[in-house]
């Protein structure tokens, strides 16, 4: 596969994820957030299983007990991110959610300091400042304008950052990204369904009404897009992959405007632009500075 083909796969994955934000929002007209999360990840688990079995046949080592515990921990982080994002969508827009969720690109290197004891690149600090300023502008220039859903989505971005950090180190040890994916999907499904059964009503008619969204997000946003991401990242650079995957925020905002009629003030678009720039610089600048270092 050429690098251009790989980047196109990553762009397709980002587009699928962007459409997922719209599906997540519209589904809650019929079903509660935790039932949606539980059913979504149950479908995702089944969608990924065939790939897991194929991967297992080629695996050189079996999953150890330690790795299994890490898989479960990563699944709990995924549940935290999915839950705060989904509940947040009840009081924020798809546009805001898609961009604020993208803050994980800034949070990942910061959290890596605590898990991996690695000092972040200097660009992280101006990148974080730009991201916070972007959220401020997204609120219309008034912090009081930030909704509870916006704040929950910031928490969601932290959970995603934890999940990404732990998943990255774990997969580098096991070489089993699909096994990890299926396990974290299953853990999230079990946790969400347990909460849903305790706090949310549900009916077969509600599930049928939300079925298109559940199937889209479960099969495509979680299953297919994850596989596309894994394949694409094997044939392109991390910096280029970050650019194409971060475009999910733009797809989310564009589809929200096209399908849901969402609009923002000019300051909101400026905030989105600043947040997107922050996402890109924290990925691009470290790679560029390494290239410019003289050979030893």
TrEMBL record:
One of its GO terms (cellular component) is plasma membrane. Keywords: Cell membrane, Membrane, Transmembrane, Transmembrane helix. It comes from the Bacteria. It is found in: Cell membrane. Residues 7-139, 148-282 form the EamA domain. Pfam families: EamA (PF00892). Its main location: membrane. The keyword Coiled coil does not apply. The chain crosses the membrane at residues 33-56, 68-87, 99-116, 123-145, 151-171, 178-199, 214-231, 243-260, 266-285. SUPFAM superfamilies: Multidrug resistance efflux transporter EmrE. InterPro entries: Diverse_Substrate_Transporter (IPR051258), EamA_dom (IPR000620), EmrE-like (IPR037185). The keyword Cell inner membrane does not apply. It is a multi-pass membrane protein. PANTHER family: EAMA DOMAIN-CONTAINING PROTEIN, OS03G0707200 PROTEIN-RELATED. This is Drug/metabolite transporter (DMT)-like permease. It comes from Rhizobium esperanzae.
